[in-house]
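The instructor's notes for this session suggest beginning with a concrete chain rather than abstract definitions. Hand out the sequence below and ask the class to guess, before any prediction is shown, which regions might be ordered.
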Amino acid sequence: MITSFHPPQRTLMGPGPSDVHPRVLSAMARPTIGHLDPAFIDMMDEIKKLLQYALRTDNPLTMPISAPGSAGMEACFVNLVEPGDKVIVCQNGVFGGRMKENVERFGGEALMVQDTWGTPVSIEKVRALMEAHDGIKALAFVHAETSTGVRSDAQALCRLARDYGCLTIVDAVTSLGGIELEVDQWGIDAIYSGTQKCLSAPPGISPVSFSERALEKASNRRTRVPSWFLDTNLVMGYWGGGQKRAYHHTAPVNALYGLHEALVMLQEEGIEHAWKRHALHHEALKAGLETLGLSFTVTADARLPQLNSVQVPEGVDEAQIRARLLENYNLEIGAGLGELAGKVWRIGLMGSSCTRRHVMLCIDALENTLSEAGVSLPSGAAAAAADVYYSAEA
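After discussion, reveal the predicted structure:
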């Protein structure tokens, strides 16, 4: 007979999900009420305001999609791309490739800007492609590429798109809550994220936000939006605001309790402080990892503090190290994807997984596990290096 499932207690330091704070788990255990209950509608309005705070936007259409980040991505593309539309898609990792898939599946023409994995999107390549083609409808790029740990200059890319009169579609799945992100100030038109990274809520919800320019495009399409569930013209009836809501779908009530609590915690901490916290613990982790002789895939000027792509030492079985970390320390770190598969570890410092305790556990566990695998390392030196950094910043 199958009995209740009881998961092991893990420490999550991969590319996501991150550790979920007990406050968020407790919120999700509260009594379920109806998705049109007046009390739930009040909470929906609060979630919108909290997401606007986190994204630094006043966009009225700022809401959580009742599905994971991939659905948030699809919501942006399915509403803004029509058959024949030319869209510049920037790819410097796995997730730019998924943007290309969305453009093509909705009948658009993807004009690709390809950059080496682990390097930022080239502003000059984008400019050259815009110069070479008339009628570009949108520029799509990943702000924080989860597969490589690189940050692209979203502000400069959005400014360029405005100069050429096209919309921007931005993947902020890993950036929201972890690094500076200014939707209104930078002029981002459509943006999507996930809850399981720096917000430290469970996976399964995707925050999105659309500018007035984006909504104008979506509401004046030549063709009908090919997705009923993700059509902004329909879902606005449910998330639009006020007490009178049109039934659209049954929202994941308890999951939204969790997102609400995670966003309340972010508000309590302060978004700018959260950015600083991620930078602080990244630098301490960096000090420890470099003492272990490990190097980063991404140069310091473009490196994400919340997603550290670390080169696997020559002769080390990266999968075996990850398996031993999980078995001996209940510590999860991530493997490489695509071109970087087997070559890197991806170590996350996201949300509730971005603390001094997490940094020290990761450094000690890696040192011990690499030593057991035959790598010669100075005992305790990595932890000492991280301690020195923390002491200097205290």
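Then share the key points. The longest strand covers residues 136-142. The chain is about 45% helix and 15% strand.
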